[in-house]
Amino acid sequence: MKIDEKVLSQAGLTTEEFKEICALIGREPNMLELALFGVMWSEHCSYKSSRALLKNFPVEGPGVLQGPGENAGAVDIGDGKAVVFKVESHNHPSAIEPYQGAATGVGGIVRDIFTMGARPVALLNSLRFGPLEEKRTRYLLQGVVKGIGDYGNCIGVPTVGGETFFHPSYRGNPIVNAMCVGIIEKEKLTRASSKNPNAPVMLVGSRTGRDGIGGASFASDQLSGDSEEDRPAVQVGDPFMEKLLLEACLELIDKELVEGVQDLGAAGLTSSSAEVSFRSGLGMEINVEKVPRREKGMSPVEVMLSESQERMLIIPKENKTEEIKEIFSRWGLDVAVIGRMVSEPDLVIKENGETMAKINASFLADLVPSRNLRVEAPPQKKRRKEFKAPEDLKKAFFKLLESPNLASREWIFEQFDYMVGTDTVAGPGEGSALIRVPGSKKGLSISLDGNSRYCSLDPITGGRIAVAEGARNSYARGARPLAVTDCLNFGNPEKPIIYWQFEQAILGLAEACRAFDMPVVSGNVSLYNETEGSSINPTPVIGVVGLIDDINQFLPAVLKEEGDLIFLLGKTREELEGSEYEEVIWNREEGYPPEVDLARERKTGETLIKANKLGLLKSAQDLAEGGLAQAISEMSFAGKVGAEINLPGEFPAFIELFSESQGRYLVTCSPEKRIELEKLFNAEDIECCLIGTVGGSSVNFKGHFEANVKEMETAWRGCLSRWME
Amino acid sequence: MRVGIVVFPGSNCDKDCKKASNLMGWSSEFLWHTQRKKLSGFDLIILPGGFSYGDYLRPGAISALSPVMEDVREYAENGGKVLGICNGFQVLLECGLLPGVLLPNPSLRFICKTIHLRVENARNSFTSEYKEGQILKMPVAHGDGRYFCSEEQLKDLEAKNQIVFRYCNSQGIVGDEFNPNGSKGEIAGIINERGNILGMMPHPERAMEKILEAHTEDGRLLFGSLEGVLK
Lengths: 725, 231
Known about the structure:
heterodimer; A: 725 residues; alpha+beta; 7-stranded mixed beta sheet; 36% helix; B: 231 residues; Rossmann fold; 5 helices
């Protein structure tokens, strides 16, 4: 077959890339080799549009045991233990087939964690859809939530947090990002490589079928009206198989029987074999006829590109093959030796002894040419300082509480088992979840979020805020933020305006990560999130993992006892552009997001932790979307008690209630701690303003309006179930 | 106390049950589903929650046929105490060791939340440390928790005082609106006539420590009751 433009386009390659391939291997590739390059050089596998920019991220730090480049990042948490975590996108599959798309997204990220040898202890998800009022949104939401639940619940990993956001830009292209966190004894940390050039290569788990062929290329393309026809490119998940794989693999690693483990994700056997070879500095020979199949008559290309789920590549330690086989067979799993490591650094694909493809692994896994993409900044805008007050403040307050983006997520998270494992100290519905480190007093705070509206208004500030908010979530639990994982969801990078958004967001994220000394240890990029030429809002989603030394000191987001004092930390400004208030009340989405002073943010957070260690605080909540009004409401629902609030009065009430100024928290303390608390924050020059007292059955914004807690809670809890049932 | 915790492929609350057992200071051991073993040395056998065999076919249906269940049946026939939690309850029903079935929740959605239970029968080995009418706080997490049986069976269960827990509100009022899964008679847990096999949908092993999300220790007395009887 002649290689022409049509063939290249089917393989997902450009003419320039084809020339580059010929130059690298010194000849024309055959069809199988071309297919291997096609998937390996796809955006999804190669990061060819993002590699250069991602170099801006800080990736090192004193606690980092594993940075980007492996299946997941790992950070030291003391006592000989490490936390292993990563976030990944599964947007395109979920747009076409929400249930399986979301389910296999969970399956993939869980495999990334136990591949490293860590037992998964928590899952989170970040979801974005079109307007809730639209039927298709509800169809997608229902399917995605059920997919996540059915998979996570079955494998017994608690889904402890995340976020859901509705916005028209996600109408045709929803966002489904899943994060998994695991814990491991440090010295058991396993890499996806081998030092032994003669080691056998084993494939275990599901049999290989024709499902998901070309999934990586599909994920690297825009969605179109014909995308429904791409359904075969969406994989089907089997959580029961994954649970068996998880237990079996952890047993192998625990018994120190394996040298390397790699899961099969995008581009299946091709990427896993090429990456293991490249990381090992060795080659690999694969005999495709030895790969257990689900169906007959599969060609080598189909076997190499299949994205059948729940499969792992295992490189055993010397003479451990039989012991490994026994363990897998006890778990009822199929295992086959499908090849071996070789000293020459080539990936060699053979069928019945005949060589079908032979390519240097680094050509596939590393030497993709970076793309030089053009950047074009949009024109400058004006900042607005004049804001329209609502006609009726109380009505506006209720309207916000029951708006789709601020209302309770209970309808979603009640479908997730967030308590299995009996280490969930704080589950979904608060800023950060808190998971106890098994067998210790330590706890991990975990959050996953990002405000894409801010990013669409100004990506660099939006990027900074995404990281600052993650850190704030951690501080508010009393936990020191340790490190970051990021999922960068953007539109088509070939459009200069999109690439500008991408670049700016990364610069903002990187700057903020440096300001908090939080290295980025893992992550994922998802580009081409567009439908029919219309792009999603730039959506960096940030996962932050923090550490608290004693879980008994964790700070819940709740009003606790009558008489407790409520303080507002940080400065409120007239910052309503890009806020939920502007969107919900005036249907406006323009201007610039709030400013964020990163150094001050950090100082505020660290002082909060200090105050907590001194035993001054009873609870804390960070201020985010919906501002002070939303934060006090949620704390009041959690404590089933009201409060009397005296707004500081510097600005009109609606600004003080709904401004989304950054770097702010609500904290509560008992009255006798007041002086000490104020002294501590004053000494650090951080605003610490007494604004109210806990008590009663309503929240009384003195001089403005009073709202009954039960009525508020009914409005807040009812929104999603009203739409979904 | 020596406890055997059965592990089916897909069980996922097995480790949580072991932790609960550790908190009680008991010794415990996992029993693999294919393992044949005399169970007479154990004081209690727990069938834990999870998704044994992925809930394929019907929850508990395949596990009910596994070799270990033959030993559990023999153990129970000799008077041994068996506790089935969530998926374990489903297995007990599929085995016919308890009457009735568990159907999918009417919402067709999985539900995870902390609910209230009322102790209806405190005169058995599993609940003797509770008071009758006592209100407990405990998590549920299931997709198929709707207890169902015939009218005659229900009358029989009531007549023989076999209903151990019913769903209620925080004041102890039993009613359909406080029932998370549409169970018949608001039933959350039942015991066999002989009083040595208890099946329940709520998770007592998740209600052992105040620090955890559900903020309850109400499960401790269930294990405490067993200890009182068996020690």
